[in-house]
Structure to design on (309 residues):
């Protein structure tokens, strides 16, 4: 596809474009601001040779491209977040031109401001909970075939029991930590091939936390960590509120 | 009083996987005339997983 489109990073309240003079945008494109009344969208002009629908599908297969674009998106979103309350958009949200971005903002109207007011003074934190690597008994030298089969049966039973207990523990941790947060959301546990972790991931969640309450939130994570085997808890953040900006399509 | 624990906070750089959880799985969706619909997010995620698995095997 030829031509250009307007890549949207995030929605915020109006701010001067000069704030982004030093921020590198998507694939080398300058960062600009499109405003409409009380809302603004931080954007860059992108080539449809990269972001057209067909081209995008192909590019999403290329991990190097995905990483470059994801990092660029995140860098811009974080610099917007450094200036004011920010509702990040999904990766690769592209409109025809600035005029259609402006139309979107107008259509969003009060819902946009409402979303921003929910995010005011708050950050996202990520929590991952790791389980134990199962240790099968069947593999331990058995004295007979029958013994081996019995152990194998026990292993299956143990594994089920462990996984039920583990998922209950993940639910408990999620519920407990959510009491120290304004909002909570679960992501799918990461595939081991993606995370590169040997231990199974029991919980992958995001929490929206008042900046003023960040210390109390961290203490609740500490309490969870102390009750579990070492290195079971991974905390990331603060993130821009990526997981808490779901808007209905307008 | 802050009690020392083994909870290590990772700030930046974020891992790519953590970033993709957020950039593909979440984020405001604003319909655009050319908004690339990530309605196929699951599909894309699966493809990425296959891809990343391949990358890891190659190492």
């Amino acid at each position: 596809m030829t031509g250009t489109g307007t890549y949207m990073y995030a929605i915020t309240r109006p701010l001067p474009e000069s704030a982004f003079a030093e921020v590198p945008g998507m694939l080398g494109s300058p960062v600009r601001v499109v405003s409409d009344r009380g809302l603004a969208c931080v954007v860059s002009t992108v080539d449809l040779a990269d972001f057209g629908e067909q081209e995008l599908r192909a590019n999403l297969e290329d991990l190097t491209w995905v990483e470059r674009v994801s990092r660029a998106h995140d860098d811009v979103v974080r610099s917007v977040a450094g200036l004011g309350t920010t509702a990040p958009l999904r990766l690769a949200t592209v409109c025809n031109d600035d005029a259609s971005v402006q139309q979107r903002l107008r259509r969003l109207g009060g819902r946009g401001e409402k979303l921003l007011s929910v995010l005011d003074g708050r950050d996202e934190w990520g929590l991952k909970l790791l389980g134990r690597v199962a240790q099968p008994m069947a593999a331990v030298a058995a004295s007979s075939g029958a013994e081996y089969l019995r152990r194998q049966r026990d292993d299956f039973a143990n594994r089920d029991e462990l996984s039920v207990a583990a998922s209950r523990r993940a639910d408990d941790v999620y519920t407990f930590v959510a009491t120290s947060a304004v909002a909570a959301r679960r992501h799918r546990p990461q595939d081991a091939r993606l995370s590169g972790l040997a231990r199974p991931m029991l919980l992958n969640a995001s929490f929206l936390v008042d900046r003023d309450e960040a210390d109390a939130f961290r203490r609740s994570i500490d309490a969870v960590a102390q009750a579990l085997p070492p290195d079971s808890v991974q905390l990331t953040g603060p993130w821009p509120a990526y997981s808490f900006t779901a808007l209905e399509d307008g | 009083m802050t009690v020392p624990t083994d909870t290590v906070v990772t700030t930046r750089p974020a891992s790519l996987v953590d970033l993709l959880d957020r950039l593909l799985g979440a984020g405001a969706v604003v319909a655009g005339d050319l908004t690339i619909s990530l309605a196929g997010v699951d599909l894309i995620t699966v493809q990425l997983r296959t891809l990343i698995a391949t990358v890891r095997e190659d190492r």
Remarks:
- DSSP finds two helices and one strand in chain B.
- Residues 31-46, 52-59 of chain B have pLDDT under 50 and may be disordered.
